[in-house]
Design brief:
The protein has about 425 residues and is an alpha+beta fold. It is built from 14 helices and 12 strands. It has a 4-stranded mixed beta sheet. A 4-stranded mixed beta sheet has the order 6-11-7-10. A two-stranded antiparallel ribbon has the order 1-2. Strand 1 and strand 2 form a beta hairpin. The chain is globular, with a radius of gyration of 23 Å.
Length: about 425
């Protein structure tokens, strides 16, 4: 390794030839009937690891052109590379996968925005794609385009039966498979698989029944913008449930105070990781939380004059750990993180003050690591998903991107 790093460049290395991007040839299937052609197409794609195990729609040239009508962006535009094997993602390749997923052209700008988030140079896609843990993705659409394309944000928003939700999530999954060259037990090493792995957790914010500004406004966008938020989430140790559920529903009584107390306890349980947070490892940082508030709960909180920002601070403040309750290992861990520069600069003084008698140490880096989204119907449930605020390989695990280039909807243009 030392020799390779210090040896002078050869002439060929110093003057590399420009890389020629090769275009894969079209695939032709010839059989007696259309039914057999469809069957052979699906089996061929699955055998080559180009599908997700469910039936695909053939991405013929005409259907890809039809899909591309949903955007005014150039088919050859490169938006990034896709982990783990860093295949190049283009608008046309995304359109091909959108056809196979059963999406409509008006969904394409949403799918593109999701892929822009996941291929962002700072987003840690590698960990969620390849880890042995059962992490998954939340794909959250906010703004007027969600209603235009009839995404479900109410009862059953994580379930089946909604073409927009399901095909958008599936198009992202197929894009990750085909551009990231991803496959279970080869480089996707999730030991029990990933929850909702064909479509991820793809849904829209319930803006009509939310008392607050759209979520993307909290991320710096205008209310009339349409955006996609991608977030790596831990779906529970089994990898099968988006747990825990804090309260709500139509059977048992619930109170706003009871739900808020449950959320505080949930965040508090992650204190166990305090001694192992270390940037550059598989456990790199404190958690961030994506909390889905059902509309009735959000309305009750709004009546108490609590908005998203006040609630972020409330949960942040309620989960401080008194200095007197910290173990010696926890004190050492906080000191190490301060010295290593792993605490946000504007929070260092707060952490230093917390390491004194009478002080308190927060379990979160900052209040903004709590993301609150109104979703679900009436009645509904409030539940949460969490993951490290930073990824092991790159610094971001949660990112909002604007939808642009739409041609078939009023929003997202």
């Amino acid at each position: 390794i030392i020799d390779a790093l210090t040896r002078p460049l050869t002439k060929a290395e110093a003057n590399p030839k420009p890389e020629v991007v090769k275009t894969a040839p079209s695939i032709k299937i010839t059989v007696e009937t259309y039914e057999l052609a469809l069957w052979k197409f699906n089996n061929m794609f699955l055998d080559n690891h180009w599908g997700d195990g469910l039936p695909l729609l053939p991405p013929t040239p005409n259907r890809v052109k039809w899909m591309l009508k949903g955007t005014n962006r150039s088919p050859g535009e490169v938006i990034g590379t896709v982990a783990p094997k860093n295949g190049v993602a283009t608008i046309e390749k995304i359109a091909i996968n959108a056809v196979m997923a059963g999406a409509k052209p008006e969904y394409l700008p949403v799918i593109i925005a999701a892929m822009e988030g996941l291929t962002d140079k700072n987003y840690d896609l590698l960990h969620v794609m390849a880890s042995t843990g059962s992490f998954s993705l939340a794909i959250i659409v906010t703004g007027p385009i969600a209603k235009e394309i009839k995404m479900n944000s109410e009862i059953g928003f994580l379930g089946y039966g909604w073409q927009a939700n399901d095909s958008i999530g599936r198009a992202v999954r197929l894009s990750l498979i085909n551009m990231g060259h991803l496959w279970p037990a080869e480089n996707d090493m999730a030991l029990v698989g990933r929850a909702s792995s064909n479509t991820f957790y793809t849904f829209a914010e319930n803006e009509e029944n939310s008392p607050w500004k759209p979520y993307h406004v909290s991320q710096g966008f205008k209310p009339d913008d349409s955006c996609v938020t991608v977030s790596t989430v831990d779906t529970g140790r089994s990898g099968l449930l988006p747990a825990p559920v804090f309260g709500g529903g139509a059977v048992r009584p619930w109170t706003p105070d009871g739900i808020m107390d449950s959320i505080v306890k949930f965040i508090g349980t992650n204190r166990e990781g305090m001694t192992t947070w270390r940037r550059g490892t598989a456990i790199p940082s404190p958690m961030k939380y994506v909390l889905m508030f059902h509309p009735e709960f959000a309305m009750e909180l709004n009546r108490r004059n609590l908005d998203r920002e006040k609630l972020q601070k409330y949960f942040y403040d309620r989960t401080f750990v008194p200095y007197e309750e910290l173990s010696p290992k926890e004190v050492q861990s906080v000191q190490r993180r301060i010295e290593a520069g792993e605490i946000p600069p504007d929070r260092v003084a707060l952490f230093k003050e917390g390491l004194k008698p009478g002080g308190k140490i927060p379990l979160l880096n900052k209040p903004e690591d709590i993301h609150i989204i109104v979703a679900g119907g009436i009645p509904g449930y409030t539940f949460g998903m969490h993951y490290f605020a930073e990824g092991p390989y790159k610094p971001i695990s949660h990112l909002t991107k604007p939808i642009r280039g739409a041609t078939l909807t009023k929003a997202g243009r």
